[in-house]
Amino acid sequence: MELYYEIRALICTFDNTKDISFQLETIDKMINKDISVLYKCDDSGFTLLRIACILLHIDIIKLILNYDIKSEIIKIKDNNDFTVLHSVCSRKIKDSKLIDIVRLLLNKESSSEFIRIKCYNGFTALDFAYSQNNIDIIRLLLDKDLSSNLLKIKDNKD
Asked: Which CATH number fits domain 2-157: 3.50.50.60, 1.20.1300.10, 3.40.50.10800, 1.25.40.20?
């Protein structure tokens, strides 16, 4: 867990106004020491991906998602039964980075089932986006769900 907290500290102090390539390279080298660190959680159940999403660090999110070949990290739930998508969609801020993050997460997972995962209170990511009146995120989620279901229908006809 020591490596987890070292990388977490770097993510928390990541500065988009400075040379990000050096910062990303440092984080990348640390992850390469033990890729399993990406699946570890702190006491709240937060993965490094979740921390990067909370802090809106898109470059770090992309870096982590590149390691997530089987789309497993994005499905890890925290102590409140939230996936990272729940967490992002429940944000009260209006920031274009949130939309970019949702897009990255949705592009990582091909199945619409990811969108339908429920947390402890039965809410999905779409429910959270709706509660925050975030029309752009609602559209992304519905488009993903619709396109995934249309592909299933098409596959069943063949």
From this structure: 1.25.40.20
For 68-104, what is each residue's pLDDT tens digit? 888 899 999 999 999 999 999 999 888 899 999 999 9
Domain boundaries, the chain: 2-157
116 token code pair = 């339908």
| Residue pLDDT, tens place only, 3-47 | 999 999 999 999 988 889 999 999 999 999 999 999 999 999 999
This prediction has a pTM of 0.87
Number of Cβ within 10 Å of residue 148's Cβ equals 17
Distance of CA 130 to the CA centre of its chain: 18
Q: What is the 3-state secondary structure (H, E, C) of the chain?
A: CHHHHHHHHHHHCCCCCCCHHHHHHHHHHHHHHCHHHHHCCCCCCCCHHHHHHHCCCHHHHHHHHHHCCCCCHHHCCCCCCCCHHHHHHCCCCCCHHHHHHHHHHHHHCCCCHHHHCCCCCCCCHHHHHHHCCCHHHHHHHHHHHHHHHHHHHHHHHC
